[in-house]
Specification:
The complex is a heterodimer of chains A (469) and B (87).
Chain A: H1 3-12, H2 23-26, H3 51-74, H4 77-80, H5 83-113, H6 117-145, H7 154-160, H8 165-175, H9 180-209, H10 213-243, H11 248-270, H12 272-277, H13 285-305, H14 316-322, H15 326-336, H16 350-359, H17 363-375, E1 407-411, E2 414-418, H18 421-429, H19 431-434, H20 440-443, H21 449-455
Helix pairs in contact in A: 3-6, 3-10, 5-6, 5-8, 5-9, 6-10, 9-10, 9-11, 9-13
Chain B: E1 3-7, E2 15-17, H1 25-35, E3 44-48, E4 71-76
Parallel strand pairs in B: 1-4
Antiparallel strand pairs in B: 1-2, 3-4
The chains are: A mainly alpha (469), B alpha+beta (87).
Chain lengths: 469, 87
Amino acid sequence: MSDQATDYRRTKRLYWEPSYVPKEAIYPPANYEGIHFKDWDRWDDPFHMSFRQYVEIQAKKDNGFHPARDAFDRYGGTDRMDRRWLEGMKVVYPILFHGEYGALRSNARVSRYAPAPALRAAAFYQSIDELRHSQNHVYQMRMLNKHTDGFNNWAEWKRHHFLLQPAKMLFEDIVACENVFESVMGLNILVEVAYTNLVFVGIPSVGVLNGDLAGASELLTTQSDETRHMAIGQSTLRTLLEGDDRNLPLIQYWLDKWFWLLHRIIGCPLGVIPDYFARRKALPMRQMFQRYIVDNFVAGMVEDLGKFGLQPPRFLDAAVAEMEDAPHTLFRTLFQYKHMLFNKMFVPTETDMEFFGEHYPHWEERHGAFWEEVRAGDPKDLPSLPMLCQVCQLPCVFPVPEAPTIRCSEWNGEVRWFCSDGCQWIFEHEPERYSKAVGLDRVLTGKDVPEIRAHMRLSGKLGGVLEEC
Amino acid sequence: MLIYARAEGCSTPALLMTPEPDWSVKMFSRIALSTLRADKSRPRVAINRRTGEELASDVTLGEAGFLPYDLFELVLGVRGVPGDDGA
């Protein structure tokens, strides 16, 4: 038997039938309640990774990436990055950190409580991967912080700034799933399989066009681990669907729910990067969404697992329709809060608008008037935070602020507002879980702009308009 | 009182406001339109978004049956801006 096979067999056999406590005391069934499965030993990690191999491979990756990033900075690469792109990265890196750190915690929990031995081992490796990724994102911010403001206080903004609350909510929610298989579904299927190609391959390809070679390298070394993470999700999903058809309704619910949450909290906001913060553009977000999410993820999953009864996500059509406007709506909303941001905003140029006109047929009709008013001298600044969705914590402005799909539910005598049918549907299925969040718009009621800035730990001249656009 | 306000067709999202219960719908409509930077020349009707109920311009907010965090919405309509005598 090869070394690899021997190592893997040992890893997989690192469990035993306990003799002095019941097995349920070690792996409480509450962690997989509702899942019908008996032979957990059948779950297999297709990578058959041992810890020794893992360390060797990861060390090679870091030994290659860190010197390349340092050389990029030493020879003036950061100074040559496009300023607009740099302003976008001020938002991207703290959100990525949220995601990676949440994934680290979630996998640490799966590696402790999952009933399948091989899943516990694979989740252990993934939790270390996520620590590497989160540290690399911090290294990236450290490098950029030497050249510009807006990166220095990211850890405080992560806790207090309204811009980062949706990502915080999303990843805390994944960590807090009582059922470890819901964590795997949310993280390893929806985050990893559906979205990492878009985030870690699609975005770097635009970054390179805007001079961000170090950022592209950093995101691509992150992506090099994602294949293993996707395999964990796909293996789990297939095992559970093949194993017992009673698992289908719960898995379909998780797919419907996490697809919408990921679309709303990652897909929609991410669109401002390729469409706006990228001065030199490649594909519009709408086409990237179609390619990576609809054609690759949804079509691939249905082809692979449709025979078990798995259907496309419930809100797929709504998500596709929204991508016509989502990047533009969110960029406008951010512009209205530029005096409360840690990055700078700007007015789209004629070149930008030509791109929008070419790729978004309704842009002029739905968004053009807003920018005409800005050009005429209206700063559009608003005095307080917007109504935030009870579930996703994003502003209730979709698809366009002039006619948003605001939804309302009463629960325990209190009024709750939602940005969409998707978020309302999730709340109505799990009201206890999603009723506890208190939006910053309510926390900061009655405060003026200096007080809001102080609460969000904004100092000096952070935010405002990028003059050299 | 703590209620959200928004105006249909306006690019400003719904904002949380703190009107007094004895303010009339007419008075709050004027203040809300100004805070929301909405087009005051367009005819509008005030409604409670949760119930869909249309609000008479002379009732007070306290009498109008709002719950905390309800949404006072100024929708585009033909009856004129509540409180705008010229509309």
